[in-house]
Amino acid sequence: MEEIEVVVAHGERATLRVGDVFLKVDVDQTRTDVEVEAMAMVPIPTPEVLWRKPPVLALAALPGTALGRLGEPSTASSAAWAAAGAAARLLHDAPLPPWPGRSLDQIASRLDGECAWLVTNGVLSADLVTRNRRVAEAALRPWTPVFMHGDLQVSHVFVDGDEITGVIDWSEAAQGDALYDLAILTLGHEEHLGDVVAGYGTHVDLDVIRAWWSLRSLLAIRWLIENGFDPSLPGCEFDVLRARM
Question: Which residues does UniProt assign to the signal peptide (predicted)?
């Protein structure tokens, strides 16, 4: 009999694995709508949709292993990281999805609120928050929208040797900034930024990628804490912010 593995679970959604099938349970079916539609549109490998019966989406497991994990050294080759950059470029060159992403004003407003919460609640020092808020400013500039994955964490990219076998978790896909995807992919893995950029194959502004590291970390910390995750673990969001000092 197959065992049930809880991959991730919090108040909004849960992902279970039973053998070679992943069961995603989400209280917000619009996220699942986005995930299914995005996977049908993109020019890179994605999991096969086996069936859908709200609130459950069943997906086939991808071959290979995750490119890495936040807070852990990646054992993947430089070529695999470069392949991830090339896959991101294919995605960003694809026709835009019909739905928009967050606007600059929305991101800036949320950033202000999260920074205030971090300081008011004593989660991080005012100096650390202020410094990273200043670094994050470089990301808040106009961009030409691309088809953005929106949550291109290193654990969402699967590889077999040096080849990309697929990318998972498309519920945040939207029109957005290409450099945001590259930043999320390399968050906590700065040593592989050069490999990713080489695979991406065109000039990118590294200061903007570093700005997105700060911005994304500042935005994520409260959600992580409130949902039972620990951003203070080695190599995770607190360390990402401290590295900007």
Answer: none
For the segment 167-187, the average pLDDT, to the nearest whole number, is: 98
Return the percentage of the chain with pLDDT > 70, whole number.
100
CA distance 222 to 202: 34
Print the domain residue range for 115: 62-243
| Interacting residues of 123 by C-beta distance below 8 A, sequence separation 6+ | 117, 221, 222, 225
Strand partners, 174: 148
Average pLDDT estimate for 217-224: 98
Residue 187, in any domain of the structure: yes
The CATH number linked to 212 is 3.90.1200.10
Q: Per-residue pLDDT for 5 more than 70? A: yes
Identify whether 223 is part of a domain: yes
Asked if 130 and 35 count as a contact pair (C-beta separation under 8 A), the reply is no
Task: Check the CA dihedral 113-144-38-73 and report its sign.
Answer: negative
- Contact predicate 67/157, CB 8 Å: yes
pLDDT band at 3 (very low <50, low <70, confident <90, very high): confident
The number of domains in the chain is 1
